[in-house]
Amino acid sequence: MNPVIEYVLRDDKLINFLKFPCSLFLENKRGTTGLGGKLILSLYKFQTEVYVYQYSIWKTHKNDEFPPFREYIVPEKEIFKHPNVIIPGFKLLDFAEEPYVSPLKHVSELPDSIFQELGYKSCIEGFFNTNTLMSRKYNWLWRCFYSIYRQDDLRWKLWQARFIPPCTVAPELIFAKAYNSSFLQLST
C-alpha cells in the first residue's frame, strides 16, 4: 500500500473528506455468485442525519426502475459503526491504487502559477479516487444492470447518476477501515 494512503487511513484523516451523496458497493462475504448478495448503499446527508438507502440488487425485476430498497436514518456521528451502514457479513468493493505521477521535475520546485496549483489538485483528486477504481465501479454496476435489463441506455444513465455520484475522495477508501477491507490487509 502507498505510504500516503496508509498514513491517512491509519489516522482517520480522510473522514473529513466524505462528501454526500455517496455510494458504496457491497458483496456478501460468502462469495455468492451472480446478483445474490449484492447491495448498494446510497448515503445522503440532511442536517446532522444521514439517510441510508440499502438497494438489494438481487431482488430487482425487469419492470423496476431501480432495485427495491430499505431506508434508514443514522446520526452522522455513527455512520462508521452503525450496522445499517457497516453491514455484518458484507465486504466493500476494494479501493484500487494507482501510482502517483508528480507534475514537477524536481521535488524542490514549488507551484508558481495557478496552473500548477490546479495540476496538483487534479493529481491529488486522482490519487484518492483513481481511474482504476472508477472503472471497477462502472463494471460492477454494469454487470448488475445488464443481468437484469440487458440493453437499456436510458435506464443505464439513470442508474449511473443515482449510484455513482461524483466525489473527490472515493468512499471505498474512506470506509475501508470501518469495513476492515481486504485492501488494508494487503499492506500488513
How would you summarize what this structure contains?
This protein is of the alpha+beta class. The chain is 32% helix and 18% strand.
Descriptive notes:
A hairpin with a 2-residue loop joins strand 2 (38-46) and strand 3. The radius of gyration is 18 Å and the shape is globular. The longest helix is centred in the last third of the chain and has 19 residues, at 131-149. The protein has 188 residues and is of the alpha+beta class. The protein has one domain (3-185). Strands 4-3-2-1-5 form a five-stranded antiparallel β-sheet, covered by helices on one side. Helix 3 crosses helix 4 (153-163). Helix content is 32%, strand content 18%.
The number of strands is: 5
Gross morphology: globular
Number of helices: 6
- The proportion of residues forming helix, as a percent range, comes to 25-40%
Kindly name the structural category. alpha+beta
Order of helices and strands: HEEEEEHHHHH
Beta content comes to: 15-25%
Strand order of the largest sheet: 4-3-2-1-5
List the helices and strands and how they pair.
Elements: H1 3-10, E1 22-28, E2 38-46, E3 49-56, E4 69-75, E5 90-92, H2 114-128, H3 131-149, H4 153-163, H5 171-174, H6 182-185
Antiparallel strand pairs: 1-2, 1-5, 2-3, 3-4
